[in-house]
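Follow-up to my post from last week.
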Amino acid sequence: MKQPTSIPRATDKLGVLMPGLGAVATTTIAGVMLARRGLAEPIGSLTQCATIRLGKRTDNNTPYLKDYLPLASLDQLVFGGWDIFPENAYESAAHAEVLESRHLDPIKDELSQVKAMKGAFNPEYVKRLNGTHVKEAKNKAELVEQLREDIRNFKKDNGLERVVAVWCGSTEIYVEPTEVHQSIEAFEKGLQANDPGISNSQLYGWACIQEGVPYANGSPNLSIEFPAAMALAKQKGVPLCGSDFKTGQTLMKTILAPGFKARMLGVQGWFSTNILGNRDGEVLDDPASFKTKEVSKLGALDHIFQPKTYPQLYGELYHKVRINYYPPRGDAKEGWDNIDIFGWLGYPMQIKVDFLCRDSILAAPIVLDLALFMDLAQRAGFSGIQEWLSFYFKSPMHAPELYPEHDLFIQHTKLKNTLRWMMGDETISHLGHEYYD
Ligand SMILES: NC(=O)c1ccc[n+]([C@@H]2O[C@H](COP(=O)([O-])OP(=O)(O)OC[C@H]3O[C@@H](n4cnc5c(N)ncnc54)[C@H](O)[C@@H]3O)[C@@H](O)[C@H]2O)c1
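User reply:
Got it. Predicted complex:
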């Protein structure tokens, strides 16, 4: 990444396209509409709520990120998206039952204007859904062409110069990268030949990159996390980031685990189980989709604890993750963690966490921040993997020769230092010796 000399201001409107207009996407859109009318607060969003310290602690210079950075404002955002069901964003939000009518009623007309474009959908990648609002095409290459046309039309119809995309579609079955994912040419051929390794979310990722649209992957799907997509993104000057929004239980894990590790406390076992009843839960009830989620959820602890470096503390860690579909709960998930830790002389202790969270309420500010930061990244001239956005993901994308950074606090420092560096300000090391000279 090259340090930008200056970043152009966000003078025009910004399009935000979301494949998958379900619970997360509609909670995001509704929240932005409410916030810009002053009817609710965008809590949880760094771009809207956080400040950043510049210079020394004695300088008293801590502007809000939204004042410091040339970000698009909430008033400049124009939303669109695709889904395999024809509901508009209002109907879909009502169906998801995340937001109450006191929040949906005041914006009903505006939200109803966000209509789902037909989805690119081969049903074998999401077994629990029978989409009816889907594109017809002779092969996957043609589906990509149709998605590209949708993007161009969305820009034209709304008078947009810039668009970003955040995948908010369902979790697909577990797909590993194959030969077809290794180069641009192989992938293009695979699209023509309907290669089974190319899933629906990859079609969206490819179409976005081809159209110069930054793409963030909010699911654990293999969507853009392969060499062909990286190469195309570099060629087209497109920033990419993923994967899988870090919301409920994994957010807690990446807050707690760095604390245990910092205190050199051992961990023998970490059992995590969830009940949830939304459409995401229904999709994850299929073992093939759950496998994709499980792989994404299991990675964090291993990287934070470094069992090879600390075998006496974490070498025997037994980590288990369960997701149970339980319809009565809807989006109001409950996540339990039982953590078996040990301390001085090996004496055991237990910690129980019972997090009654709301998945989409935690995910929505992430979608908003990613949209604004990815647009900023593109104006700053960045392309390819945006590792500084790891803060938002369960499985952060990283250069092949690096291990991913999962510790939330390191991720947070990295995010803010990248912003300082991007703006030509000094990064902060927290050394602070000069205060005592
Ligand atoms: N809610 C969270 O906290 C959270 C956290 C991390 C990741 N995620 C991920 O975000 C995604 C969205 O979650 P959600 O709770 O909004 O789920 P949801 O089921 O409410 O919404 C997903 C939508 O995607 C649509 N869809 C599926 N395949 C599609 C395709 N090929 N094209 C267009 N639309 C398609 C579905 O019809 C559905 O409306 C999931 O992949 C989920 O795993 C969510």
